[in-house]
Amino acid sequence: MISLIRHRNDWQKKLATNCRRRRLDKGMSRRSLSEQTDIPEPTLERFETKGKISLEAFLKLVGAFDWYDEMSAIMGKSKFTTGAELERINKNQNRQNQITQDYFTQKPQPPDFTFDGVKLGGCG
């Protein structure tokens, strides 16, 4: 578990370093980035120095730095490390596809109404 936490902290620092570098490459001060993204300057400073930031604020930085394609590439595909994981991912994706297909191909049924224990029937 300690190794996992250390690895996460390393990634946080790496993301912070890359964001700071991108800000400086664009010739932006923290103040100008803050104004563009509505992220308070102290939040930007905390992120750049400690790697701590909310997901909402980080996504604002993704937008400001035009990193949509990069984030989509990272988050767009399911990752697997074993054959069993790949089978489970494929099975879940097939189930999701079937649910979506069923939703769009089934005919909606009118609801039944009950009043004082008497079934009134469907409406429609």
Name the poorly predicted regions.
Answer: none
Task: Using the coordinates shown, work out and report the CATH topology of the domain at 2-75.
Answer: 434 Repressor (Amino-terminal Domain)
CATH class of the domain at 2-75: Mainly Alpha
Cα-atom radius of gyration? 24 Å
Strand-residue fraction? 5-15%
- Write out the CATH superfamily name of the domain at 2-75: lambda repressor-like DNA-binding domains
| N- to C-terminal distance | 58 Å
Q: What is the CATH architecture assignment of the domain at 2-75?
A: Orthogonal Bundle
* Rounded mean pLDDT score: 81
The best one-word shape is: elongated
Number of strands: 2
Q: Give the fraction of residues assigned to helices.
A: 55-70%
Q: Biggest β-sheet, characterized?
A: 2 strands, antiparallel
SSE-based structural type:
mainly alpha
Written as H for each helix and E for each strand, in order along the chain, the element string is HHHHHHEE
The order of strands across the largest sheet is 1-2
